[in-house]
User: Which sequence fits this backbone?
């Protein structure tokens, strides 16, 4: 079965300043040749730390940015090469939910106008009228029809995020790109929104490209997870596999560093040293090698390729599942 | 032994356009040398306001602070600005969430760290500069002498947070207040900063107040926990005891709504429904009552009408009308 969305060799380089006199500065390689798939009705999590390129990827898939190279194939057609008119035809099918519920809603518009907006832009006339459709959506996301004439400032962060979700749903999208949709919310409210998204996915069968830095949040929402580091995808696996048997050292380190209220007893502690290198000047070979405890000369000279069946990993020395299992039971360092 | 910091019945109110915000409503706690106390709560719980009041950093024209804040035998509430200036930065230091706004962009990092040492210790320019380099070295900044001449914008997020910690440490304070020190950082860097704070506490015997919303961070970094809701302490005690067997329904709710890296992902997260109460006119009863699942266990309308006091027993406190042994059985059923 062909996936709903298939991304191949996606690359985005941003020119960085630098004067002509002294030559051009090297471009920032925000995304550097990545690929992944989102099957219909499923969620793919795109995980990584700041600067890994996950938000740039989201913007390209949503059609807000043009890639430098690569293909974004949505239902068999390359979105990145589409003309404006062609793109407008599929526009309603791909919607976005943003991170900040404060800046992503127009403060001068009522909730009703905000949610109606996409119907107006796309010329959608629902059978019972736009107003009725908005009311229906408000209820679907756990708000009430009485909220129709209110303004965004009258709502809490969690409620605003529900408004943003209702706006994304109004065009009956097949794919929703959610860029850190819960990271600005308090924990108790975050859980409400995660549950809502899960329910919506189950009921409506929408596919999600879910961008987040929080591995625990992704675990509750995504069927499959791709881990990014400095513009590259380093590992892709099903949820069950990724969290129990991570193969890339970076994934392992991320999982180890994520704080958990259960405490650290029994968990292996991996502490990465140093910071993320600059994406304008990434390390040669494997980009993670400067922070990796397994790195050898081979890692500096030869870039590992993302390969390997249902659980691809880009590493010369991936963790084997036996190693991972042994590590998990090992005494904490 | 007298605790280093003893806060009793702290109340902070400030006037806004719509009325008076009751931000902190009778907060009491003790902190001993060499321990880390985590103050946990969601936005608007009063955790940051309480700590600003300890430092006297509130706006004096609009804010009313009552109660007692005794630091090493000295009363800080009502102390003059002059007295506070002597303590602040020298014996009590603070680090903030966002180092980019807390550091001055115009001065190099070394000079900013040296300034505090010169002011409080009357050191010479040269001695203070040397001291600043030592502090930068202590917090793990490589080539500290060279980096001391850099400006904040030349540092990465993690390095800036280290620089701010160096600034806080330069006078070897007895008390360090860290307000969401790792919230803006990536998880791998967060782990480094939490390790650094723990090593400083163990080396210098610094007492630390760690303000956070993240129960995972609490489990990693603190020994004691104080959970705030609507400006009050609703539960406190040793971290492991409280996180393993929470007594207050709000603490339970927070834990149940936190996504985990292990355990069942198919079950929904148990969200705390509803939103925190407005602090403009706090309700007469338990502030958590409108969101509480357990009010049915209490006779009559006690929860709605009577504010439950914080009852302490064996080092643990909980402010709930439900006596805890019965509470525990109810949960296990």
Assistant:
């Amino acid at each position: 079965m062909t996936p709903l969305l298939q991304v191949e060799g996606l690359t985005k380089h941003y020119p960085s300043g630098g004067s002509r006199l002294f030559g051009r500065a090297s471009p920032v390689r925000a995304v550097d040749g990545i690929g992944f798939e989102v099957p219909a009705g499923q969620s793919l999590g795109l995980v990584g730390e700041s600067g890994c390129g996950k938000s740039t990827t989201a913007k390209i898939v949503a059609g807000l940015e043009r890639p430098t190279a690569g293909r974004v194939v949505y239902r068999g057609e390359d979105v990145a090469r589409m003309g404006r008119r062609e793109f407008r035809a599929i526009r309603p099918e791909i919607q976005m939910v943003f991170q900040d519920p404060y800046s992503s809603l127009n403060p001068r518009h009522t909730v009703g106008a905000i949610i109606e907006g996409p119907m107006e832009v796309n010329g959608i006339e629902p059978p019972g009228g736009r107003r009725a459709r908005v009311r229906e959506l408000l209820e679907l996301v756990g708000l009430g029809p009485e909220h129709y004439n209110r303004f965004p400032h009258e709502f809490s962060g969690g409620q605003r995020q529900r408004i943003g979700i209702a706006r994304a749903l109004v065009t009956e999208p097949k794919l929703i790109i959610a860029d850190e949709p819960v990271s600005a919310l308090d924990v108790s409210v975050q859980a409400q929104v995660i549950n809502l998204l899960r329910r919506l996915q189950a009921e409506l069968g929408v596919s999600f490209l879910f961008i987040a830095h929080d591995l625990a949040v992704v675990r509750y929402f995504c069927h499959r997870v791709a881990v990014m580091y400095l513009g590259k995808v380093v590992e892709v696996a099903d949820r069950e596999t990724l969290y129990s048997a991570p193969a890339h050292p970076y994934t392992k380190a991320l999982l180890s560093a994520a704080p958990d209220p259960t405490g650290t007893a029994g968990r292996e502690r991996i502490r990465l040293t140093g910071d993320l290198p600059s994406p304008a000047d990434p390390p040669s070979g494997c980009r993670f090698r400067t922070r990796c405890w397994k790195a050898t000369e081979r890692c500096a000279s030869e870039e590992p390729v993302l390969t390997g069946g249902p659980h691809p990993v880009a590493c010369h020395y991936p963790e084997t599942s036996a190693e991972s299992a042994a590590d998990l039971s090992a005494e904490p360092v | 032994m007298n605790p280093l910091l003893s806060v009793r019945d702290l109340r902070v109110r400030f006037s806004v356009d719509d009325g008076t915000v009751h931000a902190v409503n009778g907060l009491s706690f003790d902190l001993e040398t060499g321990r880390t106390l985590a103050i946990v709560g969601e936005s608007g719980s009063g955790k940051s306001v309480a700590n600003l009041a300890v430092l006297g950093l509130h706006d004096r024209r609009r804010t009313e602070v009552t109660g007692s804040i005794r630091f090493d035998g000295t009363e800080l509430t009502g102390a003059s600005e002059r007295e506070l200036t002597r303590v602040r930065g020298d014996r009590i230091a603070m680090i903030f969430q966002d180092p980019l706004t807390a550091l001055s962009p115009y001065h190099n990092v070394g000079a900013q760290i040296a300034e505090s040492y010169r002011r409080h210790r009357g050191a010479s320019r040269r001695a203070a500069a040397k001291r600043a380099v030592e502090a930068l070295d202590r917090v793990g900044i490589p080539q500290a002498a060279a980096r001391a001449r850099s400006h904040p914008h030349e540092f990465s997020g993690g390095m800036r947070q280290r620089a701010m910690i160096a600034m806080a440490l330069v006078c070897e304070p007895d008390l360090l207040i860290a307000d969401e020190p790792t919230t803006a950082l990536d998880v791998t860097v967060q782990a480094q900063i939490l390790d650094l704070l723990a090593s400083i506490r163990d080396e210098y015997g610094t007492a630390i107040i760690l303000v956070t919303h993240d129960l995972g961070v609490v489990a990693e970094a603190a020994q004691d926990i104080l959970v705030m809701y609507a400006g009050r302490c609703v539960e406190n005690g040793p971290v492991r005891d409280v996180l393993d067997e929470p007594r207050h329904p709000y603490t339970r709710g927070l834990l149940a709504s936190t996504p985990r890296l292990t355990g069942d992902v198919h079950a929904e997260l148990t969200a705390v429904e509803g939103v925190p109460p407005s602090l403009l006119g706090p309700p007469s009863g338990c502030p958590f009552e409108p969101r509480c699942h357990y009010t049915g266990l209490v006779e009559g309308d006690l929860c709605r009408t009577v504010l439950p006091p914080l009852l302490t027993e064996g080092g643990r406190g909980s402010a709930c009308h439900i006596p805890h042994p019965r509470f525990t059985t109810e949960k296990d059923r």
Summary: The longest strand of chain A covers residues 28-38. Residues 324-333 of chain A have pLDDT under 50 and may be disordered.
